[in-house]
């Protein structure tokens, strides 16, 4: 019975580590000398994706978030110019399963190991903000997450990624 509990606990730990590979990652950086308090308007300079349907989806997700923070979108001019690049790539993850329980004292995890390769798609969004007066990059954010085969799920992931990406935006001095 003790071996069954140990085996079950091992499976739970293994499942947790497997999920880490496909977890959402969000990073941002900003120009510390930029005064974000003076920025109130923005426009889209460029949105580039391999699938044209996603261009509008990215704009809509970012617009919704920025407008909730009091920013106003304008056409062709503003305090900040936005660019976004969306891409997808294949990612591989190696998973190893051991038969039997074994144990460190008894020679490892078991007598036989099976390693499989899991492939999945990872989508990445890079969002840049440029000060239109001096043409300098003032903020960059990146978000990556595993993609689904279902576009509806990916749209929800995009919205969550943008919300998480802009959660602490604008940066405080």
List keywords for this structure.
single chain; 173 residues; alpha/beta; Double Stranded RNA Binding Domain; elongated; disordered N terminus
General description of the model:
The chain is α/β, with parallel strands linked by helices and 173 residues long. The protein has a domain at 24-91 and 119-165: 2-Layer Sandwich (Double Stranded RNA Binding Domain), CATH 3.30.160. Helix content is 29%, strand content 38%. The protein contains three helices and six strands; from the N terminus they run H-E-E-H-E-E-E-E-H. Strands 1-6-5-4-2-3 form a six-stranded mixed beta sheet. The longest helix is centred in the first third of the chain and has 19 residues, at 2-20. It is elongated. 17% of the residues are buried. The model is unreliable at 1-21 (pLDDT under 50).
What is the compact description of this entry?
With 173 residues, the protein is an alpha/beta fold. It contains three helices and six strands; from the N terminus they run H-E-E-H-E-E-E-E-H. 17% of the residues are buried.
């Amino acid at each position: 019975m003790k071996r069954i509990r140990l085996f079950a606990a091992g499976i739970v730990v293994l499942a947790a580590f497997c999920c880490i590979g496909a977890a959402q990652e969000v990073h941002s950086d900003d120009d510390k000398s930029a005064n974000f308090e003076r920025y109130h308007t923005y426009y889209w300079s460029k949105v580039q994706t391999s699938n044209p349907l996603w261009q509008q989806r990215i704009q809509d997700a970012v617009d919704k978030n920025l407008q909730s923070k009091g920013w106003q979108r304008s056409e062709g001019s503003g305090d900040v110019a936005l660019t976004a690049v969306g891409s997808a790539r294949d990612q591989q993850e190696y998973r190893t399963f051991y038969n039997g329980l074994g144990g460190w004292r008894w020679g490892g995890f078991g007598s036989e190991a099976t390693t499989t390769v899991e492939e999945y798609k990872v989508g990445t969004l890079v969002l840049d903000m440029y000060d239109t007066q001096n043409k300098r990059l003032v903020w960059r954010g990146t978000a990556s997450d595993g993609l689904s085969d279902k576009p509806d799920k990916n749209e929800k992931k995009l919205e969550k990624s943008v919300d998480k990406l802009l959660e602490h935006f604008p940066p405080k001095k």
